[in-house]
Specification:
Elements: H1 2-9, H2 16-23, H3 26-36, E1 40-41, H4 42-49, H5 53-65, E2 69-74, E3 77-82, H6 85-112
Length: 123
Amino acid sequence: MLSQMAKHFGRYDDGLDAVATALAHRGRRQVVARLAGGPATSSELAADLGVALPTLQRHLGVLDAAGLLDSAKSGRVVTHRLRPDPLRELDGWLAARTSFWTHQLDRLEQALDPGPDPDQEQP
């Protein structure tokens, strides 16, 4: 039964799993939100988010593995920039599902709508 369901839904080996997993943690979403405002160094991110540098480094590693970061090192300073392409891919995937379910729910609402009540007075 589960194998049939897996075949029906398919596998998402296109990077969406890594992006979704990376964004599943609130701390990593905070990093993404901060970097959406522009590049920042590791130290700036740690200070802005109120986390220890080792904790931030682990989050940055997950975001980098998901393809969400561009990082450049100059001496001892590492500057991080957000790569928006993986987020656009995820947004497109979600938009397609949102459209499908919105349509399905609209059809359900129409099917369940009893129409005007004939016993009720019309104004």
